[in-house]
Amino acid sequence: MYKRHRKLRNNSMIRNLVKDVYLEKNDLIYPVFIEEGENIKNEIKSMPGIFRYSLDKIDEELEELVKLGINSILLFGIPEHKDEYATESYSKEGIIQRAIRYIKSKYPNFLIIGDVCCCEYTSHGHCGILDEHGYVKNDETLEILAKIALSYAKAGVDIIAPSDMMDGRVEKISKILAKNNFANIPVMSYSVKYSSSFYGPFRDAADSAPKFGDRKSYQMDFRYAGDALSEVKADLKQGADIVIVKPALAYLDILTKVKETFGVPVVAYNVSGEYSMVKAAAINGWINEKNIVMEQMYAFKRAGANAIITYFAKDVAHYLNEES
Ligand code: PBG
């Protein structure tokens, strides 16, 4: 006799009973863009519904998150001044350092994750320091990344998330944190980060597009799968506590492998291009936005993600609230 799979799909009660993938608000991490200046609330053109805020207007965003029950935020900064060496990125009075102090003092219940990278702070838009040929210098860049991480830690950040893709950054950051009595701050490393066109809208959002060339000499090549586990292994050895796989949708095979191989907490980064594509189709009435978004969120969880960084976090929280 053949198996009647449909028995367990008969009605919503039995479907709810046998389901084995769960999604909750605690899984969500919302990216927040904070721009230096005053009285700024600008919608990002390629990301409808996502805004850049100046610090004096950020309460509006944070209060909405509190109301919705979203506890984790990932901060990106847009400084007024950029230079070749990303000096604003580790300044005590930098936009993110000030934002961390402000948010910590006013909203102590947020888990604040600080993205550590140079690209928003360099005049050339690359994720590190350049040599005379425009090549990003690895070890010199590590010095800057360590300074950024330490400055975030001093400001009170909860988690450090390096996204630059230099080799050895996790070790460098872990060491400087430990040396300065911040050994308890977890490192959430963008261990698997592909050189991807899915980041296009983010670069509008963060003003971080490279002025020349691309990021292929430091971000990963999506045609070479063998690199992924090796990157994660190296980061874990260097002290990473949580690893990110990015982008998410086109890389769920990698995410599953990472989860099954290492068993550590894994975060899916549902990136800007993935957001914009869904939004564009939804605005045109071509798809059911809610259903598509939720199907994707469950896909990340089913693939093995513990948490999801997503620009849809507020929408997802609304949908989950409607259900409960
Ligand atoms: C910074 C950084 C990027 C993203 C997160 N951190 C951009 C990049 O690497 O070019 C992309 C996020 C997104 O597309 O949503 N290095």
Automatic annotation (TrEMBL):
Task: Write down any Gene Ontology CC term.
Answer: cytosol
Its signal peptide is: none
Q: How does it assemble?
A: Homooctamer.
Q: Which organism is it from?
A: Pseudoleptotrichia goodfellowii F0264
- Record EC number: 4.2.1.24
Residues that hold Mg(2+) according to the record: 231
Put simply, this protein is called Delta-aminolevulinic acid dehydratase
MF terms in GO: porphobilinogen synthase activity; zinc ion binding
